[in-house]
Design brief:
Blueprint lengths: L18 H6 L10 E3 L4 E4 L4 E6 L2 E2 L7 E2 L3
Antiparallel strand pairs: 1-2, 2-3, 3-4, 3-5
Length: 71
């Protein structure tokens, strides 16, 4: 049986995120604000230098799932 899930797949561009979530979510490492990058489907923490993925409208707020961003 083959595994159909992959962590290497690119994020869905234009992913939707409930705006109310953005008002209450903070970076789990810095507790600072997040910016939503709709084109990449990510929540950006500038203080932590990380981009958290949004998959199927659900933010994945695990540091090990985030990718580093350039300052």
């Amino acid at each position: 049986m083959s595994d159909t899930t992959s962590t290497d797949s690119p994020p869905a561009t234009g992913a939707r995120l409930d705006p109310r979530l953005l008002e209450i979510l903070v970076c789990p490492l810095t507790k600072g604000p997040l910016e939503y990058d709709r084109a990449r489907g990510e929540l950006i923490s500038r203080r932590a230098g990380l981009a958290y993925p949004v998959r199927d409208g659900i933010p994945i707020m695990l540091p090990e799932e985030a990718r580093p961003i350039e300052p």
